[in-house]
Amino acid sequence: MDIWSSIVSYIEPKVDKNTLKLLKGIKETKLSDNKFQIYAPDIVYKDWLESKFLKVIQKVAKNLTGKDLAVEVISQEEVDLRNEKSQIEKELPQDKLIRNINLNPKYTFSNLIIGNCNKIAYKAAIAVAENPGRIYNPLFIYGGVGLGKTHILHATAHYMLSKNPRANIIYTTADAFMSELIAYMQKGSILDFRRRYKNIDLLLIDDVQFLVGKERTQVEFYYIFNALHLIGKQVILSSDTPPSKLKGIQERLLSRFSSGLIVEVKPPDIDTKLSIIRKKATEMKMNLPHDVMLFIAKTVNTNIRELEGSLMKIKAYSEIMDRQITLEMTREVLKDIVEVKEIESLSIEKIQKEVANYFGVNINEILSSARKKKVVMARQIAMYLSRYLTDKSLNEISKAFKKKDHTTVINAIEKVESQMKKDRKFKLTVEFLRDKLLTL
Predict the structure, then answer these.
(1) Cα dist. 284→123, 154, 155, 377, 427 in Å?
(2) Strands (E), 192-281
(3) pTM surpassing 0.70?
(4) Labelling 224: which of 10, 89, 292, 433 has CA 20 to 30 A away?
């Protein structure tokens, strides 16, 4: 029985052509005794199916099979992650499997974009992984949702394992810790629970804010924390707020949280967001024009997770509608998904003005053929920034600088890039001007 074709036929009279095209885009499903699995191309497709059609799919599936089937929509990303996890489980010895099964193989330091927002947390985590229990114990990392705290925790564990493959590590969340404790208590095995956490080298607890108000869990956590700390074992904690703002947690625990190093992970700045967008776009095999990347970086003002989600939605829309990714299309896709603030496009004239002001020269000098060293430097940097901060072509930039052809612009860009590699002070100057312009 081709159950999916039957479901689509049932839905067809009730939907428009575009929706029908999306439904027919599902190529793989799997029916078992008690479950019907639908494989979606990506997470956006999955969310759309679940929000719009899950109930009707369950209804039709029941009518066709006579069973109350559990309907599960699975995205390709989830399939890939399950496969990677399965492969890791096969390769790890059984004792390692028990200790590290919760680590996400994608959350490593090599996949972490470092910026001013997370540089201190990153360096602290590296120091801890290389010297566990000796410095910054505990390491307490706090920051808003979707800023990469969990990534740093997992990456620390992976890094420590690369240094010491026999390291005994447990990663868990405060909620999972509490659920595990309750299960052991119901079996009357609280001592077994404590023994599980007794001989580990690194304990990572995510989202400790969920310990608030859980008195019994806090008592056990305090016991385990103290036992590990006394024998020099490393503890790393994460939360959405610093210890001083965690109301409803025992003073003695807050005192322990504050006894090590407390670092904040902040929302990414424009430069970091651009780096994240470039990396994610490469991973997702997306060809993003520079003006689109700038638009996303300047308008998605929430967190890293939202950045990635926005890229997924743009990619899905482009593929489903068979449209090339442009700034106009990006505005269309994101307008109802994220709180997009309209931005004024960065013009070449604005770049020329800011660079001229910085170097203390006149714009007319930049547009002339004057060969004074300071003017030449300002002109070349302005051309370089015009190329990378606007969507203008080389010909348009050359005209804006009153040059006959674009070869002058190409030469200026090459000279700036070469000088940035050789001269740190020059590089910092260019980066300062770039950052200033991006915030205008």
Answers:
(1) 28, 22, 21, 37, 30
(2) 202-206, 234-239, 261-264
(3) no
(4) 89
